[in-house]
């Protein structure tokens, strides 16, 4: 997994979306990030760790390539939301046939 800066992450994410436009999918996950790079210690060990500020880890993957970035909250979400809106036009519509079958079965 490649940890990128915010601007380079957005450009790489755009490239992932363009590559997967005809076939494939892009998976995006957001997670709270406290700055730790190692697992949390067990109960027997008392080590005080205070996160500096609120951060968010954003990951994106197309199955082959994985990219990620860490952003401080609140981050400028305008560029991120515009990118998602521009590339969400290929979503499939839900099939409505199953609802009509249920109503006919109850009659």
Give an account of the 3D structure.
One of its GO terms (biological process) is SRP-dependent cotranslational protein targeting to membrane. One of its GO terms (cellular component) is signal recognition particle, endoplasmic reticulum targeting. The protein is an alpha+beta fold. Helix content is 32%, strand content 21%. The chain is built from three helices and four strands; from the N terminus they run βαβββαα. It has helices at residues 6-19, 77-86, 97-106, and strands spanning 2-3, 27-33, 55-61, 66-72. A four-stranded mixed beta sheet has the order 1-4-3-2, with helices on one face. Strand 3 (55-61) and strand 4 form a beta hairpin. The longest helix is centred in the first third of the chain and has 14 residues, at 6-19. The protein is extended, with a radius of gyration of 20 Å. The N and C termini lie far apart (55 Å).
What structural keywords apply?
extended; 107 residues; alpha+beta; single chain; four-stranded mixed β-sheet; 3 helices
């Amino acid at each position: 997994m490649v940890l990128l800066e915010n601007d380079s992450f957005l450009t790489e994410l755009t490239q992932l979306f363009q590559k997967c436009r005809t076939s494939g999918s892009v998976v995006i996950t957001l997670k709270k990030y406290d700055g730790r790079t190692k697992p949390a210690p067990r109960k027997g060990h008392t080590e005080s760790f205070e996160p500096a500020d609120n951060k968010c880890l954003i990951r994106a993957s197309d199955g082959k390539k994985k990219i990620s970035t860490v952003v401080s909250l609140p981050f400028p979400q305008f560029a991120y939301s515009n990118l998602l809106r521009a590339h969400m036009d290929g979503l499939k519509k839900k099939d409505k046939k199953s609802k009509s079958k249920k109503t006919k079965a109850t009659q």
